[in-house]
């Protein structure tokens, strides 16, 4: 909602997208709220259905379903708080320096420097009451426990707000990732013959870059990279990687298969 308000204030031609994944009964009411608010503000509205059944890996499956139905380049309202949460989650998953860079494609996230409380203030100033997603309070989900338990504990133990620190860390890590990317620029990580000419370290870097792109910007963990390198080196024919995805070797090439 805050992103929509700010985009309209910036004079942009705005289309608001609402994706109903059928996970909560109140989602239909929220779709009406989005439509009504966007219309009042002068934005166009598109409503999409992308049903996702409850079950394992719900967060990842819901994210993939949203990405599948939204247009390429859609701007999202991620904040500095989301960035900090993502950095912690990626580090705990073992995603390495790419994970420490946080949320991918910062250019598509124009309010990434704002705090969550500031987006609430933007809505309040615009006279908008945003909907509250009750799933954001559900302790079953990793992000929610980081948000409601781990970050407050970090603030208590350190005596300072960890969010700006983690956001700055993500900026520095992104710079490092950019430098590392130049080492494998132009390398086809799906070509076994190309990977055979690289050291393990460079091959892992090329594989990580490829798999991050294939998974929509989510960097794989180090264990997944090690397994895929084993496939590339001929130690096995296929390997499972984080998120329920799979990489197979056939006819001298690696293929990524979504979960």
Key structural traits:
5 strands; 51% helix; two-stranded parallel sheet; globular; 11 helices; Uridine Diphospho-n-acetylenolpyruvylglucosamine Reductase, domain 3; Rossmann fold; single chain; 3-stranded antiparallel sheet; mainly alpha; 259 residues
Structure report:
The protein has 259 residues and is mostly helical. It folds into 2 domains: 2-137, HUPs (Rossmann fold), CATH 3.40.50; 186-257, Uridine Diphospho-n-acetylenolpyruvylglucosamine Reductase, domain 3 (2-Layer Sandwich). The protein has helices spanning 2-9, 27-41, 58-69, 80-93, 96-100, 116-125, 142-158, 162-181, 192-196, 200-214, 222-232, and strands spanning 15-20, 44-49, 238-241, 245-250, 253-257. The chain has a 3-stranded antiparallel sheet with strand order 3-4-5, covered by helices on one side. It has a two-stranded parallel ribbon with strand order 1-2. Helix 4 packs across helix 7. The longest helix has 20 residues, at 162-181.
Count of structural domains? 2
Query: Sheet bearing the most strands, described?
Result: 3 strands, antiparallel
- CATH topology of the largest domain, by name, is Rossmann fold
Helix content: 40-55%
What is the mean predicted local confidence, pLDDT?
Answer: 93
Distance between the termini: 31 Å
Evaluate the radius of gyration. Answer: 20 Å
């Amino acid at each position: 909602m805050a992103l929509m308000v700010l985009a309209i204030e910036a004079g942009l031609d705005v289309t608001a997208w609402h994706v109903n994944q059928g996970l909560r009964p109140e989602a239909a009411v929220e779709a009406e709220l989005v439509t009504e608010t966007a219309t009042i503000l002068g934005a166009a509205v598109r409503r999409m259905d992308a049903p996702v059944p409850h079950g394992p890996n719900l967060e990842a499956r819901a994210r993939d379903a949203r990405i599948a139905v939204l247009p390429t380049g859609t701007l999202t309202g991620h904040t500095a708080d989301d960035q900090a949460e993502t950095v912690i989650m990626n580090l705990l998953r073992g995603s390495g320096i790419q994970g420490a860079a946080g949320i991918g494609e910062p250019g598509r996230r124009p309010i990434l420097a704002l705090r969550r409380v500031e987006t609430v203030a933007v809505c309040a100033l615009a006279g908008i009451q945003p909907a509250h997603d009750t799933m954001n309070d559900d302790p079953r989900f990793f992000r929610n426990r980081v948000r409601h338990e781990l970050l407050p504990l970090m603030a208590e133990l350190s005596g300072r707000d960890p969010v700006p620190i983690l956001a700055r860390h993500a900026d520095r890590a992104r710079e490092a990732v950019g430098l590392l990317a130049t080492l494998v620029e132009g390398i086809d990580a799906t070509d076994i013959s190309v990977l055979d000419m690289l050291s393990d370290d460079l091959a892992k870097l090329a594989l990580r870059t490829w798999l991050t792109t294939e998974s929509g910007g989510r960097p794989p963990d180090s264990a997944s990279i090690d397994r895929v390198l084993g496939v590339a080196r001929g130690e096995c024919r296929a390997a499972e990687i984080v998120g329920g995805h799979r990489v197979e070797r056939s006819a001298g090439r690696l293929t990524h298969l979504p979960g």
